C-alpha cells in the first residue's frame, strides 16, 4: 500500500479520500462509518515524540 502524503500525517475519514490517496496491491476493506485511518507521523502537543 502506498500513500501520497502532503504533510507528515493524514487522517482519512471516508472511502473517497482513501481511494484518492492510497494506491498499491494491498487494499484493505475499512468501515469508515466505524473507523478513521491515521497514517504518518505527528508530534504531540506536549513535545513527546512517542507514546510508551
UniProtKB/TrEMBL annotation:
Origin superkingdom: Bacteria
Protein name according to UniProt: Uncharacterized protein
Lineage: Bacteria, Pseudomonadati, Bacteroidota, Flavobacteriia, Flavobacteriales
Amino acid at each position: 500500500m502506498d500513500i501520497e502524503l502532503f504533510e507528515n500525517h493524514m487522517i482519512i475519514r471516508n472511502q473517497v479520500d482513501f481511494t484518492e490517496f492510497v494506491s498499491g496491491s494491498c487494499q484493505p476493506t475499512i468501515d469508515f462509518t466505524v473507523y478513521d485511518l491515521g497514517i504518518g507521523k505527528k508530534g504531540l502537543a506536549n513535545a513527546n515524540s512517542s507514546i510508551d
